[in-house]
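Batch 3, record 17
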Amino acid sequence: MALCVTCLVDTFYPQVGEAVVNVLRRLGVDVTFPEDQTCCGQPAYNEGFQRDATAVARRLIDLFQDAEYVVVPSGSCAAMIKVHYPKLFHDDPDMLAKAEELAGRTYELSDFLVNVLQITEAGASFAGKATYQESCHLLRELHVSSEPRALVQGVQGTELVEMDQCDECCGFGGLFAVRYPHISAAILNEKLQAVEATGADVVVSSDMGCLMHMGGAISRRGMRVRPMHLAELLDQREGRVTW
Amino acid sequence: MVTVRSAQFPKASAKAIQDPHLQRLLGRIMRQLRDARAMAVDDISEQEWELLRQRARDIKAEAINHLDYYLDLLDRSVRRNGGYVHFVRTAAEANETVLTIAKRQGVKHVVKAKSMVTEEIGLTAFLEREGIETVETDLGEFIVQLAQEPSSHIVVPALHKSRQDVSELFQRKLQTQPTTDVDELCGITREKLRERFVEAEMGITGANFLVAETGTVVLVTNEGNGRMTTSLPRVHVVVAGLEKVVPALEDVGVFLKLLARSATGQRMTSYTTFASGPRGPSDEDGTEEFHLVIVDNGRTKLLRDEELREALYCIRCGACSNVCPVYGKVGGHAYGWVYSGPIGAVLAPVLTSQKQAKHLPYASTLCGACRDVCPVKIDLPKLLLRLRQHAAEGGPQGRRINTWMERLLVRRWSGAVRTRQAMERSLGLARLLQKPLLRSVPVPLRGSWTKDRDFPVVASESFHHLWKARLGRTES
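Prediction for the assembled complex:
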């Protein structure tokens, strides 16, 4: 299985990538990492620069052409590969076939654990309350929602508490948050009120985009709740806290 | 003409967010509409709901893909029923057409039912300027007309007004006694409007659906004003966008199930009016003259673009706005045009101008909630992306209009992710720069992102380094 770690994890959150590797290895998965990978192209794609995104997509398709499975610890980047790559090559039959073939063996992390490995208990243990924020693209483009929850509930000692409107966007939206910081922050504010109302110790998501966004305001405000990627939660062991 | 202020979106949205009164109303009403819709949809099985959505989409696709055929059929059906049909290209032509009918009939008073297309073309203001008293009879529209404000939601035009606001407005404009009792406020409106209905010589409505096969106009309302508008005045004028046509009467049933649930969370609205032309020789009552004005006003531009064409499937239920996190914070006025929310952001660049509406395709997190609730399954995020693409690279809907700054950033990004080595160089540079500027890096982010949120620090060791140094060497 080849890990597509995503540029956000690579650049800002290497510990999340490490947690992904730890969890998969503990489950007996042989993890490889194509070292030339950079980004899936989503930033350019979402801004409308399809030509730039296509060049990056072409590169990623080549890099992962030999992997049996590609696992991505991000709903958004997985959706980029699975849903949007084929659209980029709609008028290039050769590349389209390759893109569709890659889409078929690419999985977001929780999707891979639950639906390929058939695992909901990854051997983690964490005493505390967790609330789950849906990643919009994981939920609405890949329709993965029960899988991460099952994994959270499979962590020994963790109680899953649902927040109000857990399926509403946190207001990130990539460059949206930079273009319209006031709107983005207003949406985020409501999200954090919902998080806080649960009394959760950690807010878990399957995407570092959402967590970077929520985490940025959580640290600014000195809130008690900690943002945590699902992989980090699944990597928690008795007596070992990584945050 | 209608004033479009979409170019003001950045400022107008900021103002909306700082308006606590609006925020309270949006917070409460959006929630109510969302919950009501969810309950009404739960009322039928998920499987049936999905079947209905797909069927509705198929019907719309059939009608829009063969628009020439169905508009021609509609034209013949309406004329067979004794009505007149007017095909108009622009807003100005539409207004002139209605005015000509009014003048010929000696009309001095008009009552109007709620209609988005008449707001789009500015018909009410136009007729008033021409000396014809024109009164909105939908409660929400009546309120915003009194307040001389545009409506702020496709279905709930006076969403931005509280009961207290309406009470004060009525006291000021109608010299009524202070009351915030909803029944009393409705009573006042009803009393005022009855006189208008009686004296009006012309009733103007929109159309939720135009049935090609029978020439029937279908109106979906809750207050009964639609029915009075279509039956009391001597002349009934229907103004409708050309996308409203559906092939057959039986198609309407599919949409009725979807529309009321999606818009207001009702199983069915209080009134569903079917009007098929003027009274016949054997009818005891009904209008004497019936006109159907079919408006293009830029819609054929959507028709020409195969990818954007599905925007014409919209049945104006407002569900996309009700679930949109952006609309939920900025409200309808910020969009600066009659159609707001996600569908407004799609329609505006095509129906107004790409330049005027340049901000709107970006006023979305692309969360996709709108696509999931759309009763005709319009892929709104896809359409927003398409419009962004036109702005970035040029396309059928416009020229390349993004700024040099955006192009520069994307070029820098493209260069940085082209190879691993290039990315390492960029990361190295970012690490150097972020030290002195820590937490307010990089320039385009300063003061925007970092006003309310910390920005993460580029890790001293990327995941790549971790992999090379440690992780990749470990045996699994």
